[in-house]
């Protein structure tokens, strides 16, 4: 989802999937746990990700974890935990960058030039 904050600052919300593989302690069977994480990007970082990210693109995200509270239509408090991204590296997959070695090419975007809004 892409939007703007106060019609000035670009905002992008993406989902990142992670997985952890390990052997079960009792059976020795290989197990895998998958999780999806909400990531919010601001400013130039949000603008750039709009043009380069596609579903299935392998990415590395660095940032801080924030939990924010919001009130739903029913008046109940809800909480959302998300990663506020400050660095995004595109590792490959999902889109060709016009290079034979495109999957090895790295793109680093740093969002440190944009103040992160406080909620």
TrEMBL record:
List the taxonomic lineage.
Answer: Bacteria, Pseudomonadati, Pseudomonadota, Betaproteobacteria, Candidatus Tremblayella
Q: Which UniProt keywords apply?
A: DNA-binding
Q: What is this protein called?
A: Single-stranded DNA-binding protein
Please give one Gene Ontology molecular function term for this protein: single-stranded DNA binding
Annotated GO biological process: DNA replication
NCBIfam families tied to this protein: ssb
Stored InterPro entries = NA-bd_OB-fold (IPR012340), Primosome_PriB/ssb (IPR000424), ssDNA-bd (IPR011344)
């Amino acid at each position: 989802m892409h939007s703007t904050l106060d019609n000035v600052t670009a905002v992008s919300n993406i989902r990142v999937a992670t997985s952890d593989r390990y052997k079960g302690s009792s059976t020795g069977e290989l197990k895998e746990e998958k999780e999806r994480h909400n990531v919010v990007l601001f400013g130039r970082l949000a603008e750039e990700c709009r043009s380069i990210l596609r579903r299935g693109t392998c990415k590395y995200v660095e940032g801080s974890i924030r939990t924010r509270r919001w009130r739903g239509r029913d008046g109940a408090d809800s909480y959302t935990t998300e990663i506020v991204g400050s660095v995004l590296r595109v590792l490959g997959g999902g889109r060709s960058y016009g290079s034979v070695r495109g999957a090895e090419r790295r793109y680093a975007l740093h969002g440190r030039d944009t103040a992160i809004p406080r909620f």
